[in-house]
Structure formats: C-alpha cells, structure tokens
C-alpha cells in the first residue's frame, strides 16, 4: 500500500469528528497534498443520517449507507471508525481488520475495554490500528509516548484529559460559580452533553488513562481496576480553601510507576499553582509526562471539537499512508496485545498528600480528638487552616482544613470514617488528594 | 536494515549529549529492549578525548579515535554526529551519508546554514537525516510538526527555545536581578557558557527557528535573513513596567504566515500573563504552534542537558531502526531540499503591537510632541503609563511607557529616531514587541 500513489479512505460515522475529518480530506486536500505523499483519497462516508454531511457540503457521491461495500472496496486501504460506543463500532472495526484494512479510530471507550483483543486481531490480519484521536483530541500525546519519548522509562503521567470537566472547574475557580451553574453554562455553550455523566463522573478520563498508561508503561491495563471519582460532588468552599493554600483543583488522570506495579486513578486533585498543569484552563487538555531521561515534558491543546480531533484522525491516516503507523505497530513492544498485564495497585494502597475538610463543633478539645484519630492511622499533619466560625456553624460546624504529609489512601479513608463518627463532627468530611511536582530523576 | 534484528550505531563526539546518548544505549539498554525492536547496538564512540566517556564508565572497547573505521563498519547503520560546529561536523555527516549510513544529529547551527544541501545529499544516497535533538532538547517538537500536526496548515509558531536566556529572564523577572547578575548566576550554575554570546545574542534561537519554520511551513528558510535581537541589552525597569501592564518578557523565536510570505524573527517580546508561554520559567523550553485545524497546541520540557537531549537523539536512532524516520524523510514534502524558498518578509514589514519607553523631560507639552511623531507615522497609542518622577529625572528624564496598537516595525523604528531627536528627550527610547494570543481559526 505504501508504494501506491494514493490511499483510499472510508469514514464510518459522519458526526462531529467524522465530518471534520471528511472536511480536512476534501476541502483542505491541497494542504495535505503539499505536505505529504501518497495522496489521501476519501472514497466513502458511511452513515444513516447525512444531515451533518450536507451541512458541511460534502460531495453527495461520497455518501453511502452500504457499509459492506465501503469496507470491501479494493481501493480502500484504511477504514476510519468514528461511530463511538462499543457495540456497532466494534463490529465495524473487526470487519475492517478481517478485510485486511488498516483502522483509524477515536473510540476511547472501545479501546479501554477491548484494545488488546482488537490489536491482536489487527496483527493477525497484517494491518494496524492507529488511535491518536482517542486521547486529548488534537494533541499528539500518543506519538510522544510511542515515538518521541521512546528512549525513556516513563515514571509518571498526569493528564487533564476531559475538556468539559476542566471548563466547569475553571468556571468554579475563576468565577466562583457553583458546580450546577457551571455545568448549566457548559451545556448552553455546547461544552457539555445533555447527559454529562460520562464526562463529569470521570469515566471518559478513565478510558483515556487506560490507553495512555498502557502505552506509557508497556503494560496491559485492566480498565475495571481503575478507581474513578468525578467532579460532580465538588463544593466551591473546598476550591476556595485550596486556593488559599496555593492549590487549584483539576480532574487528573494519574499513572505512577510504583516499584514493579503501577498506581492508576482518576480523581479531582489539588495541584500547586507552580505546576504547569495548574495553568491549563477552560476546555483545554494537557498531559505531563515524566521520563527518566527527559524529566518533565508537557503536551497541551484542545482535547475535543470537530477539527482539532479530526486533525489527529487525519494524522493517523497520513501515518498509515506513509507506512509509519504500520512500522510502529510492528516494532514497538508497548502494545497491550504484546505486553504483560500491569500489576495495578489496589486503590487503598495509593499514596498521596491529602487535603481534608472536617466540619467540627467550635469548642475546646475538638481538634485534639481529630488529630488523635489521624495520628493513630499514621497520618501526619502538615498544615491546619481554620477560619472564623460562619453564621451556620451551630448547625453544620466550622470547617477545619487539614493538609497531610504523604499517607496511604486506605488509612485516610478509615481515619475519616472514625472522625465522622465522633460526636463533635457535624457533617461528612471531605478528602481531596494533593499532587506534588513529580521528582525528576537524572 | 529494518528487517535486521539490530541496528549498529556509531556516535561521533562524546561530550554532554554524546555521553548521554551512549549512556542510554548501554546502561539503559534493557529499557530500550523492552520498548522497541530491533535492538540498538552501540558499536563505536569516536572522540579525541575520552575523559567524559571514562567518567561515565563506558566500555573501553567502544572508544575509538578511528573515524573512518567507525563510519565504514558494515554493521553500523546510523552515524550520530554530536561534535557541534559547522566544519568538522559537516565532514563527518557528509562522509557518513556517502557511506550509505543514516545520520542523526543535534547540530542546529549546521542544519540552519546547510540543512538543504545535507538533506539532498542524504536523499541522493538513499538514507535520511533525523535531528529531533536540534530543537528544544527532549521535547519532541519536530515530530509534532512533521507527524502529529501534519493535517494542519501551520499559521504561526512561537518558541522559547533557549534555556539559558529563559533562565536569565526568569531570574530578572522573579528576583529583580540585573541582567549581569542573572548571567553570572547562570554561569555559576552551569546554565550558561563562559562565552554566552551565542545564547544571549539570540543566534542559537535563530538557528532553531530556521529549522522549525522550514518544517512548519514546508519552505526553505534563508538563515541570514532572520532578524535577531538578544536579551543582553534588556533593562530591569522595562520588565517591571511590562509586569504592571500584565506582560512578561521572553526571548521568542517567532514564525508567522503572512499571506504568501512568512515573517520570522527572534527578539525579546512581551507576552500576556494569560498566555501559556508566560508560565514557562527557568531553563525550560516550550513551543506554541497554531494549526488551522488544531488551533493552539504547546510542547514543553527541558531544552538542554545531557539526558534530555540524548532522549531525542536515541528516539531518532530508534526511529531509524524501526524504519519510521526513512519513511518520513521519503514521504513528507516539508524538507528544505524539496521545498520552494520561503518569501521572507523584510524585518521592517513586521507588524506587532509595541511597548515603548521614552525618557522625556517632565514638563507640559512634552507628551503631545511625542504623540505627534507617532501619529504622523500612523502609530496608534493603546495605553500610557507614567510614574512619579524619579530622583534622577533631571538628568535622565522620566520614563513614559506607551503601548501601541498593531504597527509596522519600520514605522516604529523611524518614529523613535525622530522622537529621540526631540530636544525634550534625555535618553534613547526602548521598543519591545508585544505578542498577543494568536487567533485560532476554525
């Protein structure tokens, strides 16, 4: 295929991303032709509804409802799956691979759950799967992990990989909006779905983390074992107290090498205002990667949207056309179908510093009782912040904000259960992990 | 070569970067073996002085002074030039290419001046040149331009690509150090050379800009036509006034598409504190790239140092081994030996907003005379900042800080010549460009 003058392309799914990819391949074909050979020839756009395709002015001759014909067309070398979901999309990909076609996809949910099986199927059929668009939209983060940073043992990765959540958190932080108000604004501006659950509950970030961590560590990741917390229960007061302490809250996808195992999690996290990730605001995404040779590198850009994501899709098509993606698929040892399973540490073994907010009665001796519980669980206090009692202190208690030194998540959870059982505690305690600058090791 | 089980490597030059690359290929060979195939086999380290090689504990059997033998060794597929400079290094590269060996290099000066000729020589010999390490050290920015962003028409690129300058500017900004003190500290900490001219005068940044702009725009760049200003004449007071206005100064390498031409320059620039590049501090590098599809993406990391730069060198060696670099060299149309010359706009046609500091007598009517000169040159004033007269105002005048709307550099230069000739002006005026957030176009 690589020696041919052009690569035929079938796009399945003409929604936001599919429409964007078709636009880049047709409206902007001169841009591509000036930049790479072979030519990329869009031959079929398969969907059941062509409202978006017509809005974009795609050539009617490209539009087709005949999936079988669009996949089996001998002039087609790559099938681009942009349907989303894990059922029909999976059938499309499997059919394409069995027909000996390379596959390009942005489907993070499918790859997080079934990546290893699909990669193995591709390998068995002598083709490859490329999926740059599955993580962080237009940011070429997978290429960094698989190519630019290949000489590194990756020690940790911290990602802001969901633009909806980052937009909401930025509104809460910068404008003092409540979670509900910020979500409503995001929905109004098209930055959040009508049903935002997949985003705000952290699932989408976890899908991306599974893909990123697998390539960073060269290990097969079990998605089901990734602990996930979303932003939907965050309270504005904690963002404010965090800010006083020099932190900003971000929904982070975290992957850390811990001895022979790996620690993976998605959770709202406080990060120092000194860390570059703290600056990533609005719908932007960024991923910080710590390699043993490079130290800290970071990759920043739009994590969603039609053309930014389509940019990654078309880069993958171009990579297939140039013969680059097939060679990476053949020669890298990072792919989950070739890799050993990761030893994923149980969530309770996560180690971190913590921000704790305890709602306590405002009278002598209370803090000593809280501190006693923490001490008994080997949790060392780093700082305490207590404001003047608010008006409703009688009913809800006064907020006592405690930051801890590095502690075990299981111990912190258990300690908070015991703290909350004290008769001087008026409301459930809050705990948020604090992510420190990862040490660079040269 | 790609089908073989291993790729033999010769490194020429065992200094900071060469020593780092040899370390990654030997001490860390297990890391590489777990991540890619074929194996990378270091066979020769050529130098005339092995003090660094011995300090690093490299195997004596690798060390050689026989360049011809190390290049002609039939088991060697790639020669890594890490000598630096443009004379002997060029001979090494030409000899390697003529011997049919792929070349990896970090030599920005050589590529900025003679890249097109060397790429053509490589092409004539059926091999490739890879040079990720030439720009921004461990940050895979060339891969982003050549691969991850290939579906984009690149509209602009703004780079902080010299760690020495960024460290000095950060010290001046954050600690209020003078340029001379910050430079002395950088030299003491090994972050600046004993003769820092190449860095602080902006030449090193211009070398990198020539390489980056050529790949971003797919045009051959004439290095000699890039206007270059360094940081060595910056005064602390301007950094302070800029900060009051919401700007921080960075030495920026700037490449902008302007109609059919391109505008290239290296100069100290004010950038809004809201822009991600403003956060890049200390010795770190970052490059912001604006693509027509992705909008803004940014790449951040250590731009120098032994292992960070060696990470990029070894990534290129791995890319050659996997057959990726040769395919990019063959199929991309961006390489300067294939590309048309860029229409580089003359420096005076650069358009920008400007920060101007005029040292004027503190008496009525003075500002009107300055404003009259600016207006006559079609320079529109955006804001004015004038502080209480300092003690030495009688001798040096009072600083009047003016920001302008977008104006032509030639007009601003000419206007300042006329302003400085006024009898009410006590000292030469200062002008610094202001870089606004580049518009994203979707």
What does this structure look like?
Two copies of one chain form a homodimer. Chain A is α/β, with parallel strands linked by helices and 442 residues long. In chain A, helix 6 (108-124) packs parallel to helix 11 (203-217) and helix 8 (163-175) crosses helix 9 (179-188). The longest helix of chain A is centred in the first third of the chain and has 17 residues, at 108-124. In chain A, the strands form two sheets. In chain A, strands 7, 8, 9, 10, 11, 12, 13, 14, 15 and 16 form a ten-stranded mixed sheet that branches. In chain A, strands 3-2-1-4-5-6 form a six-stranded parallel sheet. Chain A has helices at 16-26, 29-35, 51-55, 67-72, 88-98, 108-124, 141-148, 163-175, 179-188, 197-200, 203-217, 236-244, 306-322, 324-331, 366-376, 393-396, 409-420, and strands at residues 6-12, 39-46, 63-64, 76-81, 102-105, 129-130, 154-160, 247-258, 261-272, 284-291, 295-302, 351-360, 381-386, 398-404, 407-408, 425-435. Chain A starts with 5 loop residues before the first strand and ends in a 7-residue tail after the last strand. Chain A is built from 17 helices and 16 strands. Chain A is elongated, with a radius of gyration of 24 Å. In chain A, 38% of the residues lie in helices and 25% in strands. Chain A has three domains: 6-138 and 308-331, 3-Layer(aba) Sandwich (Rossmann fold); 141-302, 2-Layer Sandwich (Dihydrodipicolinate Reductase, domain 2); 348-435, ACT domain (Alpha-Beta Plaits). Chains A and B meet through helix 2, helix 7, strand 11, helix 13 and helix 14 of A and helix 2, helix 7, strand 11, helix 13 and helix 14 of B. Strand 11 of chain A pairs antiparallel with strand 11 (295-302) of chain B, so a sheet runs across the interface.
């Amino acid at each position: 295929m690589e020696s041919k003058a052009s690569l035929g392309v079938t796009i399945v799914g003409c929604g936001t991303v599919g429409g964007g990819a078709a636009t880049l391949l047709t409206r902007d074909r001169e841009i591509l032709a000036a930049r790479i050979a072979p030519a990329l020839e869009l031959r079929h756009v398969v969907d059941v509804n062509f409202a978006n395709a017509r809005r974009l002015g795609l050539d009617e001759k490209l539009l087709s409802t005949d999936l079988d014909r669009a996949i089996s067309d001998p002039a087609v070398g790559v099938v681009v799956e942009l349907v989303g979901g894990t059922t029909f999309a999976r059938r499309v990909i499997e059919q394409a691979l069995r027909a000996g076609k390379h596959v390009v996809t942005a489907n993070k949910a499918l790859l997080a759950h079934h990546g290893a099986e699909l990669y193995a199927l591709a390998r068995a059929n002598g083709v490859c799967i490329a999926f740059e668009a599955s993580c962080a939209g237009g940011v070429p983060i997978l290429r960094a992990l698989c190519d630019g940073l290949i000489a590194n043992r990756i020690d940790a990765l911290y990602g802001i990989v969901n633009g909806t959540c980052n937009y909401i958190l930025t509104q809460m932080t910068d404008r003092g909006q409540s979670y509900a108000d910020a979500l409503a604004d995001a929905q109004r501006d098209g930055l959040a779905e009508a049903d935002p659950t997949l985003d705000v509950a952290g699932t989408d970030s976890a899908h991306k983390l599974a893909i990123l961590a697998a390539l960073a560590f060269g290990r097969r990741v079990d998605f089901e074992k990734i602990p996930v917390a979303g932003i939907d229960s965050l309270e504005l007061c904690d963002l404010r107290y965090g800010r006083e302490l020099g932190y900003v809250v971000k929904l982070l996808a975290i992957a850390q090498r811990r001895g022979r195992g790996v620690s993976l999690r998605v959770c709202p996290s406080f990060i120092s205002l000194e860390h570059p990730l703290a600056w990533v605001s609005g719908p932007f995404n960024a991923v910080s990667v710590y390699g043993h040779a490079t130290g800290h590198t970071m990759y920043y850009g739009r994590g969603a949207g039609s053309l930014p994501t389509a940019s990654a899709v078309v880069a993958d098509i171009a990579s297939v056309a140039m013969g680059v993606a097939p060679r990476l698929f053949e020669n890298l040892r990072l792919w989950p179908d070739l890799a050993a399973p990761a030893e994923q540490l149980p969530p309770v073994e996560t180690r971190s510093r913590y921000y704790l907010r305890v709602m306590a009665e405002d009278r002598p001796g209370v803090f000593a009782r809280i501190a006693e519980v923490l001490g008994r669980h080997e949790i060392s206090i780093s700082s305490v912040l207590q404001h003047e009692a608010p008006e409703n202190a009688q009913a809800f208690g006064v907020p006592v904000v405690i930051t801890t030194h590095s502690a075990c998540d299981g111990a912190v959870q258990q300690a908070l259960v015991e703290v909350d059982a004290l008769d001087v505690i008026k409301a459930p305690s809050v705990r948020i992990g604090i992510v420190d600058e990862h040490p660079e090791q040269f």
